[in-house]
Amino acid sequence: MKGPLFYSKILLFGEYGIIKDSKGLSIPYNFFKGALKWDNNPSEMARKSNQSLRGFADYLKNLEKQEDGLVAFDLEAMDSDIANGMYFDSSIPQGYGIGSSGALVAAIYDRYAKDKITVLENLTREKLLTLKQIFGKMESFFHGKSSGLDPLNSYLSLPILINSQDNIESTSIPSQNTNGKGAVFLLDSGITGETAPMVQIFMENMKQEGFRNMIKNQFIKHTDACVEDFLNGNVKSLFGNLKQLSHVVLDHFKPMIPAKFHDLWKQGIETNDYYLKLCGSGGGGYILGFTEDLDKAKSALKDYNLEVVYNF
User: How confident is the prediction along the chain (312 residues), in pLDDT tens digits per residue?
Assistant: First the structure.
C-alpha cells in the first residue's frame, strides 16, 4: 500500500530574492521523488521517518487550533496510519535545496486535508495563494519559516512563476531542445546544507543599508531579467544576465557558497564555460549550473558529477 508520488523541485531563479519580492521560477524535477508507505518489515530509515511523522502530526494538531479556518486535517486517520507504521519513502536527498520536506508536506496535505484544493480544479490566483499559505505554515515545522513554494511545486507538479509574494501563477516553460548544446545542470557539493542558518545570515545582512541596496539594484534586477529571458527563450540575453547574477552571488553571498567552490565559481565567470548559482539556500547540497556548451562545462568540471536538468 502506498500513496501517490511527489517530486522534488528546483528553484531555477529567485533564491533569497523572493523573500524581498523578486521574481522567481520553480520547476518540478522528477528524478527524485517520495511517497507515503507502509511496510511490514520497516528499515531503520522507515522507523526514523515514522518517528518524525509523529512529531509532525502533533504540530499539525496545534496548527489547526492556531490557524482556525485555514486548514483542517483528518487527524484520526493520520494518527492511526502513523501507529500502523506509515513513513515517507523518499529518494530526495535532505539538505540539498531541492525540496525534500516540500514533497512530504504535499503528500500529507494530499492524503489528510479536508476540503482540499485539488490540481484538477481551476487554479485561480486566490487558490494558489491559499495553498501556498497552508503549505508555508505546514513546512515551518521543518524550517522555522517557509514560503510554502516547495510543497506547492511538489503538489501541483507544474512550473510556478513567482511575480511577487502575493502574485503567483502556474506557467509553462519553453520545450527542451534535446539536441541543444546548452544545459541547466546540478553540481553535487558533497556537503549537506541547512536552510535556517543560511536564511539567518541573509536576514542579518539585510540590516545593512549597503547590502539592501545591492539586493534591490543588482540581485533582484538580474534575477528578474533571468526569469523573463528563460520564459521567453532569449538564450543569449539569459546568459548575459546569468553571468552578472553569478558575479553578484560570488561577491555578496560567500557564506552560502561552500569554500572549496569559490575558485570554481570564479573560473566559470572568467572562462564563460559555465555559470554557477545557488540552488535553494546554499551552504551545501546542490549548486545550480548553466552552460551554453555542456561538453565544455563537463571538461572544466571533470572532477564533479553533473546531473542535467534541462537542455537548451
Answer: 567 999 999 999 999 888 888 999 999 998 999 999 998 889 999 999 999 999 999 999 999 999 888 999 999 999 999 999 999 999 999 888 888 899 999 999 999 999 999 988 888 889 999 999 999 999 999 877 788 889 999 999 999 999 988 899 999 999 988 888 999 999 999 888 888 788 889 999 999 999 999 999 999 999 999 999 999 999 999 999 999 999 999 999 999 999 999 999 999 999 999 999 999 888 899 999 999 999 999 999 999 989 999 999
Q: What is the pTM of this model?
A: 0.88
- Number of Cβ within 10 Å of residue 106's Cβ equals 28
Q: For 113-208, where are the alpha helices, taking DSSP H only?
A: 125-143, 149-156, 195-205
Dihedral angle computed from the Cα positions of residues 226, 231, 232 and 234, in that order, rounded to the nearest 10 degrees: 40
DSSP code, position 194: -
Report the SS3 class of residue 107: helix
**Whether the Cβ atoms of residue 154 and residue 141 lie closer than 8 Å to each other:** no
15: closest CA among 293, 276, 302? 276
Query: Which residues are CB-neighbours of 64 under 8 A, at least 6 positions away?
Result: 71, 72, 73, 75
**CA-to-CA distance for 20 and 153, rounded, in angstroms?**
20
